[in-house]
Write a structure and sequence with these properties.
This protein has one helix and five strands, in the order ββββαβ. With about 140 residues, it is of the alpha+beta class. β2 and β3 form a beta hairpin.
């Protein structure tokens, strides 16, 4: 098996907020709708370092009976470990998989933040998100 050419160097949350919905009715159906955004860019003066941002929030206007209102943004730093892989291949990997690294972290953080709330914790479902590298 060949070594993967990228490494997640670090990530952190630049914004995180969860508020329990006092009007949530536990025995009624709910439908949570999310706003999902992401972007990536090569960091200035670093040929082999990329920054990735992922943001997930509840769309309060279109959701029905949500247990929590939330908004979370994460930022990650991706390093290119293997310079022999072409630039186009690296950027394709980042565009198709980079945000998924952060969405996993957001998923875990949101579950943790809502675990001690008045309603069941939120477990984000699969979220398809491909991003485009900013030039």
């Amino acid at each position: 098996m060949t070594e993967f050419p990228l490494r997640l160097d670090r990530y952190f949350f630049t914004q995180q907020e969860v508020t329990a919905n006092p009007d949530f009715v536990q025995d009624e159906d709910n439908n949570d709708i999310y706003i999902i955004e992401g972007n990536a860019q090569r960091l200035v003066d670093h040929d082999h370092v990329y920054g990735i941002t992922a943001h997930v929030e509840l769309n309060a206007e279109t959701s029905v009976n949500p247990p929590y209102f939330f908004s979370i943004t994460a930022f990650g730093v991706i390093l290119v470990k293997d310079g022999s892989v072409g630039q186009a291949a690296i950027e394709s990997i980042i565009e198709n998989s980079g945000a998924q690294l952060l969405l996993g972290a957001i998923r875990e953080r949101l579950a943790d933040m809502t675990a001690r709330g008045p309603w069941a914790s939120i477990n984000l479902d699969f979220i398809p998100l491909a991003i485009k590298l900013d030039s």
